[in-house]
Amino acid sequence: MDLFFIIPGVLFVVLVLIVLVRTFTFGDIVPNYETEKVFEPQAERVAEKLSKMIQCQTISYSESQPADPKVLKEFRMVLEKNFPNIHKTCEKQLINEHALLFTWRGKNPALKPILFAGHQDVVPVDDNDVAKWTHAPFSGEIADGYVWGRGALDMKHQVATVLESVERLMEQGYIPERTVMLAFGHDEEIGGIQGALKIVNWLKEQNIKLEAVFDEGGMIVSGLLEGVDAPFAMVGVAEKGMATIDMVLEMEPGHSSMPPQHTAIGVMSEAITRLEKHPMPASPELMLPLMRALGKELPFALRMAFANMWLFRGLIISIMRKNPRSDASVRTTTAVTLIKGGIKDNILPPSAKATVNFRIKPGECVADILEHMRNVIKDDRIKLVPNEEILWDASPVSDANSAQFALFKETIQRSFDNMPVSSQVFPAATDSRHYYAVCSNVYRFMPMYLSSEELGGVHGINERVPVETLEGMVQFFGLLIKAFDKEI
Ligand SMILES: [Zn+2]
After folding, report:
1. Of 32, 146, 148, 421, most Cβ neighbours within 10 A?
2. For 209-224, what is the mean pLDDT?
3. How many Å lie between the centroid of ligand 1 and the Cα of residue 456?
4. Among residues 141, 187, 188, 471, which one is catalytic?
5. What is the phi/psi pair of residue 100, to 5°?
């Protein structure tokens, strides 16, 4: 009789012990690197250069209205004037007329080049919004400690600071062992097919394989997780794919006085409800790198849950589901974005159409989405029609356990006070997805911290970058070039 109580009791104590031990040993060890500066700070100098770059209106409106070739030429002249050493020292190429590729030849041809990717183009500013800007969107005004204007965060700031970093290294007389390439496409905002993809194709033709590619993407954030105040860095080692799928339904039209139980609109509504109720499966494992990086910074409950995912998987998924941001980081997301149906108030709608936008997580593809939709909707009358133009899979995933990633992480920690660094699947599309054809270490990271208000400027109103942030970026890229300038 006693054993009847003792055995479950002992098992329970053992279980609690396992959970606690796993919790307290969970998380990366915090390093203790010295912070390094590569250059004498010259924040105003890089701010002035960025200001000139912003004044060129390199706007990608749409595939049929890409950036104006005349403006792109002006932009190249601004670069030539502001980065004279680069233009003197590097081999400079124009690929497909407007994409820029600089090659700073290293002494040791046995080392594979590193490549800094970026884009010259920016998104348009809505005419109705112009008046809402504190400083005109293409003024490049330097005021109140910021450089203002479209492109200040996406991503002329990174193009400017990478160039400035190389320019300053050249001024110091630095000659790299490893070749450094700078590649700036001109149509990232409309897909990167004419810019980045053409650059990658050229690299392939030349048989050039790269050691690492650095592009825009994750950054230093805080306040992303409840209970975690300390800032941390997120590096995109992959990015989500995208699919837009139309749900199309045709039904007999007729007079609305004797309707069936569900009109085409009703049937479509039901399908939409089912789709929203049954999301694609979640993989909380995708959050593990971040949780490991944060380790001791995590609130106890969260740390315990992620340290014991075998026990708390379901609970984690339901917690992640509550916040759109965390939910998006663990699954392929479903967003019904357009709906159409009906022609007149007293006629039964002959058709209904709903458009659904999916952001695809690594490991899933369009076929998985279609299968999921069919299983969930359970209505053969609704045809699923993928939009072939908005359809690409998630990128491959760069190995976050590689020596290259470790070096990248160390460089971030040396630059930014040993803060936690995590890999992530970047939720949006960048040019860098094209680079996997020539490189397996593709990192998306902007070395800067922004408040959420400042972040709102990306593709929005009052896009601006703090002048001090620019200087930090220049320092980071200098350190990064030096860190990779050896055999890895
Ligand atoms: Zn961008």
Report:
1. 421
2. 93
3. 14
4. 188
5. -105, 135
- Based on C-alpha coordinates, what's the Rg of the chain? 26
**Does 2 score more than 80 pLDDT?**
no
380 is catalytic: no
Cα 218 to ligand 1 centre (Å): 11
| Residues by chain with Cβ below 5 Å of ion ligand 1 | 154-155, 216
pLDDT of 452 strictly over 80: no
- Helical H segments across 339-438, by residue range: 366-377, 403-415
Asked if 166 and 152 count as a contact pair (C-beta separation under 8 A), the reply is no
pLDDT of residue 76 exceeding 60: yes
Catalytic residue among 121, 297, 463, 485: 121
pLDDT band of residue 228 (cuts 50, 70, 90) is confident
Quote the pTM value. Answer: 0.91
Q: What is the residue type of 85?
A: N
Axis crossing angle, helix 366-377 with helix 264-277, rounded to the nearest 10 = 120
Nearest residue to 190 via CA among 51, 336, 389, 456: 389
**192: nearest Cα among 429, 459, 445:** 429
> What per-residue confidence (pLDDT) applies to 5?
80
CA of 184 to the centre of ligand 1 (A): 11
- Determine the distance separating the centroid of ligand 1 and the alpha carbon of 366, expressed in angstroms: 25
Distance CA 454, CA 466 (A): 9
pLDDT tens-digit series, residues 15-28: 999 999 999 999 98
Can you state the percent helix, strand and coil of the chain, rounding each to 5? 40, 20, 35
According to DSSP, the residues that pair with 221 across neighbouring strands are: 232
Asked whether 355 and 366 are in contact (CB, 8 A), the reply is no
Percentage of the chain with pLDDT > 90?
88
Residue 177 bears catalytic tag: no
Residue 247: both structure tokens together: 């749900």
Q: How many CB atoms lie within 10 A of CB 328?
A: 17
